Each structure stands twice: as C-alpha cells, then as structure tokens.
Amino acid sequence: MKFLVLPFLVLAVVGCGPSGARTPAEAHARLRAALAAHDGTMLWNALDQDTRWSWMTIQRAWREAYDITQSVVPEGPERARLLARFEPGATSENAKTLFVRMLLPEEWMSSQALIAAAGTRLPELSPAGETSEIATAVGALVYRKAHNRYWGWGFAGLAGRAEQLQRGASADLERMRKDAADYERAATRGAR
Q1: What tens digit of pLDDT does each residue of 99-153 get?
Q2: What stretch of H or E contains 114?
Q3: For residue 104, what are the CA distances in angstroms to 20, 90, 154, 175?
Q4: 135: which strand partners?
Q5: I want to staple 18 with a disulfide (CB 3.0 to 4.6 A). Which of 73, 80, 124, 152 is the partner?
Q6: Spatial contact of 154 and 148, defined as CB atoms under 8 Å apart
Q7: DSSP sequence for 50-87
Q8: How far is CA 65 from CA 1, 17, 62, in A?
Q9: Tens-digit pLDDT profile for residues 26-58
Q10: Neighbouring residues of 72: CB distance < 8 A, sequence distance ≥ 6
Q11: Do residues 29 and 134 make contact, with C-beta atoms less than 8 angstroms apart?
C-alpha cells in the first residue's frame, strides 16, 4: 500500500507548481492582497525566498539556543533573561508562525505606504533579471527572484530586519554553544 501512495504524493507535490509568484506582477498582486487583508500569513506567502530563509534560520537558532539554555544554564536572572530572549523561536511552530508573531506595526505601515505610493504601476525588471522594482516617492518597492526555479518572485522589502535578526540569532547560538561547555564545567566543579 505504501508503494502506491508514494507516487501519488510525488505527483501531487510536483503538480502544485512553484510556491512563489511566477512574475514580478504576480508577486506585487500577492503583496497588495496581503496588505489589504492585513493578514500575516498572506504576507509570509508574498515574501521572497531569502527573507523566508532568514526567518527559518532565526527560528531554528532560537529553538536550539533555548534548549541549550534550559539544559545547562543554572537557575537565576541570566537564565530567565536568555529564555525570554529565545522563547519566540522556541515556542513558534515554524518560521511562518514566528514571522507573523514578530511583525512590527511599522513594517505593516511602511509596506502599505509603498503599495499606496505605487498606485497602479507594475514592477519593472532590472537589467540582470534578478530583481524588479517600482520607484515611489516614499522608497522602492523591491521584488526578488529566487535562486531556484521552484520558488519564483517575492517581496523583498522586509529583508533588512530579517537579515539583522538572523545575524543576531546565529551569533546567539554560537555563543550559547560555546558557553554550554563553560556552564557544564562549572556545574561539574560545583558538584565536587
């Protein structure tokens, strides 16, 4: 029975087509719909691949840092501070949930201002063909093409904060991995 289900699942996944927009205009329409609905999940689906990958990295790093903190950091204010810092990623089901949870009002407002300023204009493709944008009086509305053929186009306007959080989360995780050995040595010395 398993062997009959597997080909069906493969065909179903392949038949779904690209998960991203096929054109910059389609990506623009997805963003416009997400902002009109003020729906974080729809906004997640309108993002470019790199921004989504940043959020996936943040979520995984914070989850692991949270686990390390619970395992090795002794009770006290430092442990409580670290757990609170990593909790959003550790308690989010996935990166999409984390993104929606951490969306700032300013991000909604700036994205809505860009869409409003763009009016009915559509994104223009860059000469390299990897980005597309609409220049407006309040800034550029930028879309990026994914590096693989399955993803497509997405809104890149929220990439800056995602990349900044990703760098911080990766640094936090590296620090927690290094500090874990120190905490374990201290616990061993204290048990003697």
Answers
A1: 999 999 999 999 999 999 999 999 998 888 889 999 999 999 999 998 776 679 9
A2: helix 105-118
A3: 23, 19, 19, 27
A4: 140
A5: 152
A6: no
A7: HHHHHHHHHHHHHHHHHHHHHHHSPSSHHHHHHHHHHH
A8: 41, 35, 5
A9: 999 999 999 999 999 999 999 999 999 999 999
A10: 179, 180, 183, 184, 187
A11: no
